[in-house]
Amino acid sequence: MPTEQVGYALLLHSSINEFDSHSGYQTASLVLTANVMIDLKKTKTKFNNKKHHAIALGIGFELSFDEYVQLLVEANITEQDIHQTKYNLARYNDEGPYKYGNCRFILQAENIAERKTSEKMRESSRKNSKKMIEIGNKPENLQKRKEGQERYWSILRERTAKKRELMHKSYTGPRNSQFGTCWVTNNQENKKIRKEDLEQWLNNGYRKGRVL
Questions:
Q1: Maximum Cα–Cα distance for the chain, whole Å?
Q2: For 103, left (φ over 0), alpha (ψ -120 to 50), or beta?
Q3: Which residues of the chain, if any, have pLDDT below 70?
Q4: What's the confidence (pLDDT) of residue 121?
Q5: 7-26 burial string, b = 16+ CB within 10 Å, else e?
Q6: Of 59, 119, 169, 203, which is the most buried if we count CB atoms within 10 A?
Q7: Which helix or strand (DSSP H or E) is residue 181 part of?
Q8: How deeply is 4 buried, as exposed, middle or buried, from its count of CB atoms within 10 A (0-12, 13-18, 19+)?
Q9: Which residues contact 16 (CB under 8 A, 6 or more apart)?
């Protein structure tokens, strides 16, 4: 192989950076197929461009460079075939991130057709959502919704009232920690006492109540 082909590489059963000593070439090149070679430098540029473009569009890009080259091998194409009018790296159903197993190189016409199909599905979904909103906003359905909400709040108020009543009962009488006590004061200090001791405190100069 001529020395100017240094920088070309091929993936078959070896890693991209592996040197195939059995190829007969005195360069860091590996044979891809009989007539297909890949320029790693140019491929790396196209890989980075695709990655940055995907990220700019908010699409996940989980593909490694090795996997990107492997996809070229599987499609039996080179970096020269990657072009808007030739081969595109496309996701299945135009959904999910760019990752190995969810994308492949296909012709531009196939990519456009697949994209249109995905867009039709999304458009159909939008139309169905719009239709459901229109149905929901019909006067009779709005009235049903209003009645349903009123029933919901009525049940909720009833349950809340019952719960408060039960709580009130649980804190009345002997269950209440303040049951059988009262405050007395001599205008200087307040005392909480048992009601049965009230008369004794009143005789000692205290009165019922407290000073805040």
A1: 120
A2: beta
A3: 1-36, 116-125, 170-175
A4: 64
A5: ebbbbeeeebeeebeeeebe
A6: 59
A7: strand 181-185
A8: exposed
A9: 9, 40, 65, 66, 69
CA 75, 39, 103, 117 torsion-angle sign = negative
pTM over 0.85: no
Query: Six-digit token pair at 81?
Result: 């075939």
Long-range CB contacts (within 8 A, 24+) of 94-97 = 94/118, 94/119, 96/60, 97/59, 97/60, 97/61, 97/62
Residue-level pLDDT at 98? 95
Minimal CA–CA distance to 115: which of 56, 57, 68, 73? 57
Encoding tokens for residue 147?
């009645």
SS3 159: helix
Q: Strand 103-107 vs strand 181-185: parallel, antiparallel, or unpaired?
A: unpaired
* pLDDT attached to residue 127: 74
CB 51 within 8 A of CB 61: yes
SS3 state at 122: helix
Measured at the alpha carbon of residue 38, what is the angle toward residues 34 and 40, in degrees to the nearest 5? 155
- pLDDT at residue 23 in the model: 38
Residue with tokens 């999910």, as numbered in its chain: 96
